[in-house]
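lol forgot to send this yesterday, sorry. struct tokens for the thing we talked abt
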């Protein structure tokens, strides 16, 4: 996709040859090189931005996983706590005043 004709014509004043488009090939090459350098710089910046975005995404993903795991753990503890106090189950109660210790809950 070269925008200039590659055929050479007669030498222009100053000794340089010009293509059919009337543009100096050296100047066109310099412009193309400058554009290629600009594109390379933009690609590097884009890669850096993508890497930074991936790092932040990974941080948020890990944070969300920790929160979800904590929530599951709390739900499991709550379920265990509620099932421990179920009526009719035997539980050990430590005496506070030294009196008799009930060994089972009564359903009242």
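and heres what i got for the seq, position by position
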């Amino acid at each position: 996709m070269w925008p200039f004709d590659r055929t050479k014509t007669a030498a222009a004043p100053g000794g340089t040859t010009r293509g059919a488009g009337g543009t100096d090939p050296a100047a066109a090459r310099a412009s193309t090189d400058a554009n290629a350098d600009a594109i390379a710089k933009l690609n590097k910046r884009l890669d850096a931005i993508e890497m930074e975005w991936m790092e932040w995404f990974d941080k948020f993903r890990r944070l969300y996983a920790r929160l979800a795991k904590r929530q599951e753990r709390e739900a499991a503890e709550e379920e265990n706590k509620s099932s421990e106090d179920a009526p009719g189950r035997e539980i050990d109660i430590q005496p506070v005043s030294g009196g008799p210790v009930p060994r089972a809950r009564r359903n009242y």
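The first strand starts at residue 8 and ends at 11. anyway ping me if u want another try
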